[in-house]
Specification:
This protein has a two-stranded parallel sheet with strand order 1-2. A two-stranded antiparallel sheet has the order 3-4. The two termini are 16 Å apart. The chain has 160 residues and is mainly α.
Length: 160
């Protein structure tokens, strides 16, 4: 929209219009205007992913890995998890993967807080444990006919 590119999904176009985002607006201003609609956007997107997965006989999986040890992500992550669960995703929440650990021993460098090899090992172990715990749901092939689709969510549409 900012660059004059049409949004092919009606519900997302409606949100952009409601937020007052227009062509030529700066990215910063557009993000500020769209921020109050973040959960609405995520709800629509996740519903579409969940629906497409079910129709294809797949199980959508939502994995949360915290971007930082502490911070504003906590409420945002809780909202995103709730939205993912509502859309039918299997949720693997790794928010406490580093709990009780000396974080200074799990990062690449003082100036780079990405996980080092040990940090990645912990992540892989927790991801594997979560997948084993939910293996019946993750590795079974759901029937597309058995899909429960929220009637309030309109199918993905493209602008002709």
């Amino acid at each position: 929209m900012l660059k004059g590119i049409d949004i092919p999904y009606g519900p997302l176009r409606d949100i952009v219009a409601k937020a007052g985002v227009i062509k030529g607006m700066t990215g910063t201003e557009a993000r500020q205007r769209l921020a109050p609609y973040g959960n609405d956007i995520l709800t629509y997107v996740y519903a579409q992913i969940g629906e497409r997965a079910r129709k294809s006989g797949m199980q959508a999986i939502w994995v949360f890995l915290p971007p930082d040890i502490q911070g504003a992500w906590q409420q945002e992550a809780a909202d995103a998890q709730r939205i993912a669960e509502t859309a039918g995703f299997t949720v693997l929440n790794l928010e406490d993967v580093f709990k009780g650990m000396d974080n200074s021993k799990l990062i690449l460098a003082e100036w780079d807080h990405h996980p080092n090899a040990r940090g990645h090992e912990l992540i892989a172990d927790r991801l594997f444990e979560g997948m084993l715990e939910k293996r019946n749901r993750i590795f079974s092939v759901p029937s597309p006919q058995a899909a429960v689709v929220d009637p309030a969510v309109k199918p993905l549409e493209t602008k002709q």
